[in-house]
Amino acid sequence: MDHRTLSVPDSLEGERIDVVMAQLFGLSRTRAAELVAAEHVRLDGDLVQGKSERVFSGAVLDVSIPAENDALAIVPEIVEGIKIIHDDDSIVVIDKPVGVAVHPSPGWRGPTVVGHLAGAGFRISTSGAKEREGIVQRLDVGTSGVMVIAKSERAYSVLKNAFRHRTVDKTYHALVQGHPDPLSGTVDAPIGRHPGADYRFAVMEGGRASVTHYETLEAHRFASLLEVHLETGRTHQIRVHMSALRHPCCGDLTYGADPTLAKRLGLTRQWLHAVKLGFEHPDGGEYVTYSSTYPDDLAHALEVIRDSD
């Protein structure tokens, strides 16, 4: 906690408390208002009741400013549900559960893959930005499945290059509403950030090139199970492309899924799972594959769909 005490100068006589704090302490008025609301501000010993309270010359302003947490700091912690599929000197392959981000980011306060690895004693590559060292690929918070993390600097370089040149085989399964026509095909459509909502993406002119290949594995009354191969790796790519086809992933309310069907299936997230990852091992060069089975929530939803036929 940072404690600061100053007398209000004559020049600020009659000003609002948030304006005074901004000028005296270099805070934003929003931050000043937050401190007032949290009862961290006193004027001549009395708690300030609101951000618009006026001050008078010579009054003693006493402010306690809690240290703000670094949003990108890695917090070592064991995260329940993360499974280690493979571990050697170069890589660690995990099965990521839903609700876990790959690395810290502004606005995310939940568990992370890198935090779990740090808490479990894994030493990973120091290449890359501080908050995502060793990270060569990402899965959305709401997407589960297999992913690889680099432990050595060589592995980081080799794997980043492999992902960049699209030589990594990324296989997903997605349960989508309805029946895509044709049953197998390719979506080649650029993706950019949605102009009306910065947390969403959309197919749009001027977006980044994005290519998704899909094949129908099972066709049921209300939904189809697809196998999806990504040629590119854009944020939300499968979700955006399936929504653009008017066959959003079941449970994906952000991209137009039917909330009634989602509730019937017991889904609180999109039905999307990274089932397999294949690549040349960064050390020996041999081709390796790692896979992940459906988690309980997705397996249950699929059974409900199968039983609906």
Topology (SSEs and partners):
Blueprint: E1 2-7, H1 17-25, H2 29-37, E2 41-43, E3 46-47, E4 60-65, E5 83-87, E6 91-96, H3 113-119, E7 144-150, H4 153-164, E8 169-177, E9 184-188, E10 191-193, E11 201-203, E12 211-219, E13 223-230, H5 237-244, H6 259-265, E14 272-280, E15 287-291, H7 296-307
Parallel strand pairs: 7-14
Antiparallel strand pairs: 1-4, 2-3, 2-4, 5-6, 6-7, 8-13, 8-14, 9-12, 10-11, 12-13, 14-15
What keyword list fits this structure?
Pseudouridine synthase; 28% strand; RluA_PseudoU_synthase; four-stranded antiparallel sheet; nine-stranded mixed sheet; alpha+beta; EC 5.4.99.-; 309 residues; RNA-binding; 7 helices; single chain
Account of the 3D structure:
The chain has 309 residues and is an alpha+beta fold. The chain has 3 domains: 2-65, RNA-binding S4 domain (Structural Genomics Hypothetical 15.5 Kd Protein In mrcA-pckA Intergenic Region, Chain A, Roll), CATH 3.10.290; 70-165, 2-Layer Sandwich (Pseudouridine synthase); 166-309, Pseudouridine synthase, CATH 3.30.2350. It is 21% helix and 28% strand. The protein is built from 7 helices and 15 strands. The protein has helices at 17-25, 29-37, 113-119, 153-164, 237-244, 259-265, 296-307; strands at residues 2-7, 41-43, 46-47, 60-65, 83-87, 91-96, 144-150, 169-177, 184-188, 191-193, 201-203, 211-219, 223-230, 272-280, 287-291. Strands 5, 6, 7, 8, 9, 12, 13, 14 and 15 form a 9-stranded mixed sheet that branches. Strand 2 and strand 3 (46-47) form a beta hairpin. Helix 1 (17-25) packs across helix 2. It is elongated, with a radius of gyration of 25 Å. The chain starts with a strand and ends with a helix. The mean pLDDT is 93. It catalyses: a uridine in RNA = a pseudouridine in RNA. Its EC number is 5.4.99.-.
